């Protein structure tokens, strides 16, 4: 495991080489968060109320801020792009000669990048916007602690989804458009743009059971106290089951991809 820790540390330190990029990323995150908050402020103003379907404007502002935090620290396109580049350059074949797991290397690499983005982009952005707009605390201490657990699950699920999509490039011979497809699915079914409690039925019911819901919607719903204690544990278990399913898919695809490389490369 020390090797994977070294990969994570190397990824973290390599990000420090682009310090000027930090300010550009923070500015970009601020624009995104301001835009999301402005949309909900305009929507509530148009309705002429501060509570819609039991959800207050301040809760929606907090949801928008948290949505940026949950999604902002993970970059699916980076993971898919890394696999695509390794496939194009042929570096992927080198991993067949190493006593290491390529999926675990990708995970360690993303963990290092996650830590960097969390400290330099997400936390400063959320702190600034929270001071500007105000941000509700967790509904209860239990919800606050479980939000952290759901956030960790969100990161793991998003990585596994990205790796699964990226490994499909072994059969397409390119990762082009794969990140677009995943991004589109996340935008619609993760709850990033619109929480599921505003979705029409039966779309809301379908979206709540898709794995994308555990990326943004459920962490935020737990933070805001929208789920009972029993539902929190139930959905944590369901999220872990989705993670196990995606993990099995990633490992199976990598095994198939390794065989494909060996056969084609002799």
UniProtKB/TrEMBL annotation:
<feature type="transmembrane region" description="Helical">
    <location>
        <begin position="232"/>
        <end position="254"/>
    </location>
</feature>
<keyword id="KW-0812">Transmembrane</keyword>
<feature type="transmembrane region" description="Helical">
    <location>
        <begin position="180"/>
        <end position="199"/>
    </location>
</feature>
<protein>
    <submittedName>
        <fullName>ABC-2 family transporter protein</fullName>
    </submittedName>
</protein>
<feature type="transmembrane region" description="Helical">
    <location>
        <begin position="114"/>
        <end position="136"/>
    </location>
</feature>
<feature type="transmembrane region" description="Helical">
    <location>
        <begin position="148"/>
        <end position="173"/>
    </location>
</feature>
<keyword id="KW-0472">Membrane</keyword>
<keyword id="KW-1133">Transmembrane helix</keyword>
<dbReference type="Pfam" id="PF06182">
    <property type="entry name" value="ABC2_membrane_6"/>
</dbReference>
<dbReference type="InterPro" id="IPR010390">
    <property type="entry name" value="ABC-2_transporter-like"/>
</dbReference>
